[in-house]
Amino acid sequence: MVFSSGSIKTHALKGISFEIQKGAFCCITDASGHGKSTLLQLVGGHMKPTSGKVFIDGVDISALCDTALSEIRAKKIGVVFQFFNLLPYLTVRENIQVAMMFTKLSAKKQRERAADLLEYVGLSEKANARPNELSGGQQQRIAIARALANDSDILLLDEPTGSLDSEMEEDILAQIKKTHKLGKTIVIVTHNKEIAKQADIHFEVFDGRLKI
Ligand SMILES: Nc1ncnc2c1ncn2[C@@H]1O[C@H](COP(=O)(O)OP(=O)(O)OP(=O)(O)O)[C@@H](O)[C@H]1O
Ligand SMILES: [Mg+2]
Predict the structure, then answer these.
(1) Which one of 5, 63, 165, 196 has the lowest number of neighbouring Cβ atoms within 10 Å?
(2) Ligand nearest to the CA of 205
(3) Using an 8 Å Cβ cutoff, are 124 and 152 in contact?
(4) What is the DSSP string of 118-185?
(5) Environment class of 70 (CB within 10 Å of its CB; exposed 0-12, middle 13-18, buried 19+)
(6) Which of 43, 46, 66, 47 is closest to 55 using CA atoms?
(7) Does the pLDDT of residue 84 top 70, yes or no?
(8) Percent of all residues in the chain with a pLDDT value above 70, rounded to a whole number
(9) Is 23 within 8 Å of 185 (Cβ atoms)?
(10) Residues near ligand 2 ion, CB 5 Å cutoff
(11) Which residues in 104-130 are b (16+ Cβ under 10 Å) and which e?
């Protein structure tokens, strides 16, 4: 993956090839700026590789048009971005409901599920707030609620507990493990050594390359 800004080119990932089995718990660690977030965003189809391919369930998502890709993402992938990426003009509740757009749930059920998830992350009272009215940790909890909303098969989590206190971190990590036990595939970027130890696959990204 090469990023170009004017004449400056950054080779964020180089010659990476790997496979994650359905239902695996995969952990990505390493120092800052080595390509972890780029890797996760490529896997989730949130950016297209400048070379190479990304397959999800046998479909080359790097070759799909934006509409087809959005649908696959919405149906199969829940994601917590490192910088949350909440939609600023929507309320907290709406941010969670947007993730259920492609589910078969009725509007009423979507509202109920959003309310349940808000209760789970302890932010029911913020349902009608806008993201910019929340603290960093609160935004992270909303991003987690949104990622869980559509009960997707694949969960991609980019340092999902980086802005949380240790109690909340334990709670969220326990939830992620529980989600994994339901048969979901988890790919998590984290500095939490305990999580890394428990993973089925542990990738270290160094200078854009994988150490497995
Ligand atoms: N949109 C972009 N445009 C240009 N360069 C980028 C872009 N996104 C990432 N990069 C560069 O790609 C490299 C890898 O960045 P990435 O965000 O994937 O690292 P990271 O391992 O997630 O870092 P951190 O631990 O700090 O989150 C860095 O050199 C970064 O500056
Ligand atoms: Mg990152």
Answers:
(1) 5
(2) 1
(3) no
(4) HHHTT-GGGTTS-GGGS-HHHHHHHHHHHHHHT--SEEEEESTTTTS-HHHHHHHHHHHHHHHHTT-E
(5) middle
(6) 43
(7) yes
(8) 100
(9) yes
(10) 36-37, 82
(11) ebeeeebbebbeebbebbebeebbeeb
Residue 147 CA to ligand 1 centre (angstroms): 22
Atom number in ligand 1 closest to CA 32: 25
**Neighbour tally for 97: CB within 10 Å:** 20
d(Cα 45, Cα 201) in Å, to the nearest integer? 21
Matching residue, tokens 């339901």: 182
Q: Which residue has the tokens 């009215």?
A: 133
CA dist 14 and 8 (Å) reads: 17
Enumerate residues lining ligand 1, CB below 6 A: 3, 5, 10, 12, 32-38, 82
Structural domains of the chain, with CATH: 14-211 (3.40.50.300)
Residues 89 and 82: beta-carbon distance below 8 Å: no
pLDDT tens-place string over residues 120-168: 889 999 999 999 999 988 999 999 999 999 989 999 999 988 888 888 8
Which residue type occupies 82? Q
Given a cut of 80, is residue 61 above it in pLDDT? yes
96: pLDDT strictly greater than 90: yes
3-state secondary structure of 27: strand
Task: Name the band, by pLDDT with cuts 50, 70 and 90, for residue 212.
Answer: low
Spatial separation of the C-alpha atoms in residues 58 and 38, rounded to whole Å = 21
DSSP-derived secondary structure letter, 53: -
Residue matched to tokens 């799909």 = 64
